[in-house]
Design goal:
The chain is of the alpha/beta class. It is built from 2 helices and 8 strands; from the N terminus they run βαββββαβββ. 28% of the residues are buried.
């Protein structure tokens, strides 16, 4: 269903420093990084899609976060959710909801919410009963 997700940034180096350790913790590999463009994209090993991309805007206007927009990554374990949330906060992110069960979604939904340094809302979650 999804080919790629593109998050615009006004400071590529800051965005790359924020996203690279998160992508590594989730097990995603860097497919490309072009600092002169500037943009970088990650994907799950062995998968052609989807890509997660962060980079400058194509129209040259400032990147802006959207109200009501969120990207959510699937984590293999609850411990990974905890680790990604901690990384996000350690690298300039803002907490939007600490890791924990969210039974109003479903019995096993374990997620955390945060914003990147640009203000984009992000989520990392695990749907497994055992975490």
């Amino acid at each position: 269903m999804i080919s790629h997700v593109y998050i615009g940034t006004n400071d590529f180096e800051r965005a790359y420093a924020f996203y690279a350790p998160i992508m590594a913790t989730l097990g995603h590999t860097l497919k490309f990084c072009e600092r002169d463009h500037p943009w970088a994209g990650w994907m799950a090993p062995g998968a052609a899609r989807p890509l997660f991309i962060v980079g400058g805007t194509f129209d040259g206007q400032p990147a802006q976060s959207g109200n009501g927009q969120m990207v959510a990554w699937l984590a293999p374990t609850r411990e990974t959710v905890d680790a990604v949330h901690a990384l996000a906060l350690a690298n300039g992110g803002r907490d939007e909801g600490a890791p924990g069960l969210r039974p109003h979604y479903h019995d096993h939904y374990y997620g955390a919410y945060f914003r990147d340094p640009e203000g984009n809302k992000l989520c990392v979650c695990c749907h497994d009963a055992t975490g």
